[in-house]
Amino acid sequence: MGERVSFTGRRAFLLIWGGQTLSLVGTSMTRFALLIWGWDQTGRATTLALLLTWQMGATVLLSPLAGVLVDRWSRKAVMMFSDLGSGLVTISLVALYLGGDLQVVHIYAAAAAYGAFETFQFPAYSAAVTMLLPGSDYARASGLISMAESGSRILGPPLAGALLPLVGFTNILAIDLATFLVAVSALALARVPPPLVTAEGEAGRRLNIFSQMAFGFHYIFRRRGLLGLQLLLAAGNFLLVFGVVLRAPLILGRTAGNEVLLGQVMGAAGLGGALGGVLLAVWGGPARGKIRGVLGGWTLSAVGNVVLGLGRGVGTWAVGAFLYPFALTVTNGLNQAIWQAKVAPDVQGRVFATRRLIAQFSLLPAMALAGPLVDGWLAPAMDDGGSLTGLIGPVLGTGPGAGSALLVVVTGALGLLVTSAGWLMPAVRRVEDDLPDHAAVKGEGG
Prior knowledge:
Elements: H1 2-42, H2 45-72, H3 75-98, H4 104-132, H5 138-167, H6 169-189, H7 199-205, H8 209-221, H9 224-245, H10 247-254, H11 259-283, H12 290-310, H13 314-342, H14 348-382, H15 389-396, H16 402-421, H17 426-429, H18 431-434
Helix pairs in contact: 1-2, 1-4, 1-5, 1-6, 2-4, 2-8, 2-14, 3-4, 3-6, 4-14, 5-6, 5-11, 5-13, 8-14, 9-12, 9-14, 9-16, 10-16, 11-13, 12-13, 12-16, 14-16
């Protein structure tokens, strides 16, 4: 009986995963098209940084509520709601563009709306995986999901960059809309069983809505190992996301706006993430000792950012862009497997939403600061004859893009220090041994 259910669960997971993978490619194409459109309108790093800031801001605001609703509702229904909502946002952008009314403020609003729907998608998808697969497959599933996310970054930007001059902005969005429909259809065909209710989960459901929204914080704060791990990764997120936010302005600035080269570097980043996902999907991670992979992966990710910032040509940029997501994919997959094993399935919606809230909240200040720091201070200081060129110019060069490169190098080096500190935290190092696994019993409902 157990094997039959497991096989059925694996088949449902692969069906959902296939639909979501195709949808991610379409989403990646849209985001690249929006990025290029925003750069063409303003030519400022702040515009690109604000796109990510609006998206993450919506996540921070809605994560607590999303976690409560995911634990109350069907995980499959929540994922379908998220996909359909994102599709409606894309339709709105097409209508504005065709009417000649699209402005930068509209793409900020669209980024916030996409972020809002993704806030529901992450905990629902993660909790659904826990119900569909046995614990031994958690890391492999995380690897497949990461491979899909990264693979979309391989295909999406180069496809969008090549197709934009041929088919135009609206047809890129139309492709994205078609992939949303495929994802929703795949979800409609899959069966995701609900979790059995644990004593802790039942007690949490009796709380009022505001107490339920705080449940995830209480859960994590009572477990020192999970708390230390989450805070460590949040600090790393704050520093390392500068490399993600500033990658486009760095390369566009140093190549006089060459979209093809940017697409190639972003493709290299997607390849790194995809290969990290393949590694994890095939390997599955160690039965114990996943935490060592988490800490080691974060260290290598920081190295990738330093290489990206030091680069002066497409080859070095591609190496740095590859290293960061390759290591981060393995890190995130192993980290996800730890949490899925330690947190009871019927409270994973709230706990995982809180995890995402903490992670995204740490990203927001970096995203808000990156553009103004570069545009207002570092870019002028690293321009020819600027105040920092005599000291740093021989290493990083001068002119457009040099200010972005300097900030990426500095934050990458600080990221190395922060992630290395994890090895000195006993509660983090022993998290797999100190906390028991939950009893991974699957529900029988439809």
